[in-house]
User: Fold these one by one.
Assistant:
Number 1:
Amino acid sequence: MSNKPYSFFESVEQSFDKAAQYTKWDKGLLAQIKACNSIYNMRFPVKMDDGTIEVIEAYRVQHSQHRTPCKGGIRFSDEVNQDEVMALASLMTYKCAIVNVPFGGAKGGIKINPRKRSTYELEKITRRYTAELVKKNFIGPGIDVPAPDYGTGEREMAWIVDTYQSLKPGEIDALGCVTGKPISQGGVNGRKEATGLGVFFGVREVCKMPELMDKLGLSTGVEGKRIIVQGLGNVGYHCAKFFRENGAIVIAIAEFEGAVYNETGINEEELFQYRKANGSLHGFEGGEIIASGAALELDCDILIPAALENVIDKHNAPNIKAKIIGEAANGPLTPEADEILIAKGVLVIPDMYLNAGGVTVSYFEWLKNLSHVRYGRLEKRFTENMNHHILTEMEQLTGKQATPKAKKLIEHGADEIDLVHSGLEETMISATNEIIDIWKSDASIPDMRTAAYICAINKVAKSYTELGIFP
Ligand code: NAD
């Protein structure tokens, strides 16, 4: 192990190279897959509320155009830098390939702390950033489609689509220029919770596998599993919610100012509301308040880091007691931590497919925007009428009546949210099984991350060879 810490992009490259050894693709093709195709590093001035002019540093990286449009979130954070955006854009390429979403990878970042900016300043910065992307042809429903990420959400996506539409009047598919929008602005039901729900589906699928659970000394199923979640933002909140609702016990939730610990379980909604009202989780009475970092090292079955990258490194990895780590955040483990945890027998479910729920549902949103019709609009009523006829016929034939509860369930025609959740569930279950099958197919593949990379490399390489670019 080298003493020099890897940059985030270098760690992605490292994982790629480790997996590439298990494939038979040409070296040149592998180098092309790894490289970031287009990097837009920009600076623009914005007049702040106090009248001063600030030069804003921002990025958009399109890692791969083997499929278009490119797709990836926009991050607002003080820590944003080119290396980080490149790494996140690469992960998007591999993530989309694994879950069969026909996009290339991209990512954007603006180096600001959104908590220290007024809403008006954030709006100005977001709109100016969008205008810069339009100027350089770095955004559009067929070019590059951003989405929310750390520090951004529906509000920012609404500003982006509005700016884009003003600059491209009459473009009929303009709503498809960004995803994660509010429903009223062309968003899709189910996008907000998609990443957290996808993490839940992915972990649940792994927990169903007796061979893997036996090795870890765990019973199958998520019920009763003790969970720790780091980060109570969009992803962390929804992870905690779906695990709790499905019978797991969320024993600790960590935020940057501290963590709450309670062996009998924490209600994420109560904690979220308390923190929103008080600006901190200190004083919350639903558990003991401990140091943020200490929460990661508590005894538990499943640890879900859902905040930022590199939170588990060679210093704290030896103290981690979780049997499973579900990487909801992008890159929460450094490569050194990864090696330490593998050696300890921890099962790491890798970020680049586990948190693919967001991009999967973004894909559904983009399809909705291009088709200009809400999911379920055409078939919901038809299905309900048909189910009603079938049920009535069965009742007459059997002479028995369905209970009101069963009647409601059987007759129900799919709404948008039903279809989105079902599409997401199918995607996460298939991806989990595809990766596990690759892992099982060769005893020398050391871990699930490597298996996931092999899956991604094979798919991207195949699409390049099918383009006829490489032999
Ligand atoms: P978010 O901004 O909604 O939430 C992140 C939360 O983490 C915040 O509440 C923040 O205070 C907290 N946090 C920051 N540093 C922390 C620390 N050291 N310890 C504990 N908590 C800390 O962001 P998000 O959208 O939930 O994204 C979280 C992670 O998930 C990021 O790595 C992001 O790239 C990844 N991700 C997000 C999506 C998505 O759809 N939003 C999709 C895929 C991956």
Note: Residues 148-151, 195, 230-236, 254-256, 292, 306-308, 311, 328-330, 355, 358 surround nicotinamide-adenine-dinucleotide (CB under 6 Å).
Number 2:
Amino acid sequence: MTDTPTQLFIGGAWVDAADGATMAVDDPATGEILCQVADAGPKDAKLAEEAAVQAQQDWARTAPRVRSEILRRAYEIIVERTDELARLMTSEMGKPLAEARGEVAYAAEFFRWFSEEAVRIDGGCATLPDGRNRMLLSRRPVGPCLLITPWNFPLAMGTRKIGPALAAGCTMVLKPAPQTPLSSLALAAILKEAGLPDGVLNVVTTSRAGEVCEPLLRGGRIRKLSFTGSTAVGQLLLAQSAQAVVRTSMELGGNAPFVVFEDADLDKAVDGAMVAKMRNMGEACTAANRFFVHRSVAEEFGRRLAGRMGALVVGPGARDGVDVGPLIDRRGRAKVEELVADAVERGAQVLVGGRTPEGPGNFYPPTVLADVDPGSRLMDTEIFGPVAAILTFDDEDEVIRRANDTPWGLVGYVFTEGLDRALRVSERLEVGMVGLNTGLVSNPAAPFGGVKQSGLGREGGRVGIDEFLEYQYLAVPVR
Ligand code: NAP
């Protein structure tokens, strides 16, 4: 967008960093610098926190219908500007335009969903067992929040947090990932246009995440942290949040198993694999990381998947007809290269891909590896790239044990035509979400989140707003 803001958004105003610092935003398809944005330091973060704290009481008292309509208006503006927002996202993140448009729709839907939830915050009233005391229960916003988002879904990870926080009556400081600040700044401009009062949302773009966030978490004024990112950073932020007893929601990493039984419909399984692996070039927490395929169908599955993966067009996301854009940066691509090299060294067969192309941009080809050794590093590392690693199994108990043999538990995919088996296996998988004969689970109306080291709490669905509300109990004796 030609007029995309590049400054910090604090107290409803666009401002430079106090020390004048800026940081570059790169185009991952070319490696060239797209623009400079303000690079906030601790002083700016304190100002943003102050603005959120000052706005909290009024926003909490704003009628739910008013909060709802601001979200609804923002939803409409996002939908009207789908194309502009998609182009902006592709320029800073790399994903193909068609996927970026899909993300804009997904992101907008969180605002529509939570505009509907804002007016349905309920409480309760009861006569207690002694027959004398009454209990009035109301639900109140938790208070000013710190929202920290990753680069892989630059718009949707923001709306998935901002939507319920606004609906609940919370104010906030948003810190987006430094690779993709532009989508968040564009979102702030849209919310301002939709009528959001000054100070309710503040955005600090920064390359100094630790310096900016730690004082806020330890300071006692921020009451809630909602974080999406890697498990390692989530663990650090949980420790920092402990001191001021900050409530936390954590959407962390995954290591999704994708299980194909001998009775699966292989067409469905390959279609599902393409989505579960290739959505967002594999740079998704929900990406299938370990393909466990029954020995009797493994060769056929591998052959078909390699055919489909090999037919994908790799190139700059903004170019027509491109299916697979660049990875986010050189570091991300180097990690994928190392994981593939390690698997090949341990005996994996490369069915397709596996070679980094020459030239600019962080491109990596869709790759299928068969006969992967279970000891390979990519079995216990998020690949975060377009690489499908296939292992074989012989029976149900064995595959459940292997699928669960990981500290993560975000999502699992199960392909079988047997209803009994589908339910039995889904119930035994240690994950927050299961895709049954499908490679896509994300939906704003469903609770998204994981178990084990994949996180705490849920985003989206009826329960998404709960993360931003506290109960208040009023004791009323009646004589
Ligand atoms: P990351 O390195 O953990 O970073 C996520 C965010 O945290 C970024 O904004 C980052 O900023 C910030 N951050 C890092 N260190 C921080 C600190 N000390 N204090 C405050 N903020 C800090 O993750 P990523 O590489 O951007 O994203 C990929 C990860 O996100 C994967 O593990 C993926 O599975 C996970 N993810 C999970 C979900 C989910 O819903 N479960 C969804 C999407 C992604 P800097 O880059 O400046 O450090």
Note: The mean pLDDT is 98.
